[in-house]
């Protein structure tokens, strides 16, 4: 046990933990983006609100959520520790020594990580905390209103979508006479309001730019740290890290606030 503890208290151990938590967070980004694409459906937020309820109430997902929060904290804390230790151990007075080429994202992972942490805090305050506020207070705060949707099960078309007056509601889905009724918190409305503010959209786009550069270096670095890289598969890892995680994922997230600001 002491050797195990000593290993994970070492610089290499901290890098291993950062690599594992980082890859776990990369997996979360795929799931999160896939669900958030429901925002582009022209259904008055029905699909997105159903997705939000599922992600916050399905027990296995809730367990994974706690692991997610822990991973964010551990990844952040260990990043700070490693950055401080590296600066303390950095040699001084060898200006003439040749330096190996280092990418801009690699040199600025601390700055990029700081922007992302601020983004996560604001994002969770404005969406996650508001969505869960009723659970924290034990009563209906109406911070996020409820919406009722009616869908014709024969045609699959939405018949109506109306805001419900303040009251004590819970998520519910029931069918009567071939008409499906869904009552859910209207998180979609909260998103629409937030993304109508230009400064909020600008901050989101900047943060997602930081995410792009952070993943550009971080994804590939994680595989190097874990030793999961081989000459044969290195181009594939670099391709996935560059085009999927550093380009497609950030662009997918950035498209949402931009779309709502101009067309929502």
What does this molecule look like?
By secondary structure, this protein is an alpha+beta fold. The protein folds into 2 domains: 3-88 and 104-142 and 187-262, Up-down Bundle (3 helical TM bundles of succinate and fumarate reductases); 145-185, no CATH class. Helices cover 67% and strands 9% of the residues. It has 9 helices and 4 strands. It has a 4-stranded antiparallel β-sheet with strand order 2-1-4-3, with helices on one face. A hairpin with a 2-residue loop joins strand 3 and strand 4. Helix 2 packs across helix 8 (198-226), helix 2 (11-36) packs across helix 9 (234-263) and helix 3 packs across helix 4. The longest helix has 31 residues, at 59-89. It starts with a helix and ends with a helix. Mean pLDDT is 89; it is low at 93-97.
Number of strands: 4
CATH architecture of the largest domain: Up-down Bundle
Helix-strand pattern, N to C? HHHHHHEEEEHHH
Spans with pLDDT under 50 lasting ≥5 residues? Answer: 93-97
Largest sheet: 4 strands, antiparallel
Average pLDDT works out at 89
Question: What is the count of helical runs?
Answer: 9
| CA-atom Rg in angstroms | 22 Å
Q: Which CATH class of the largest domain?
A: Mainly Alpha
CATH topology term of the largest domain: 3 helical TM bundles of succinate and fumarate reductases
Whole-Å distance between the termini?
56 Å
Q: Bin the strand percentage.
A: 5-15%
Total domains: 2
Helical amount? 55-70%
Structural class per helix/strand content?
Answer: alpha+beta
**Order of strands across the main sheet:** 2-1-4-3
CATH superfamily of the largest domain: Fumarate reductase/succinate dehydrogenase, transmembrane subunit
Q: What is the overall silhouette?
A: elongated
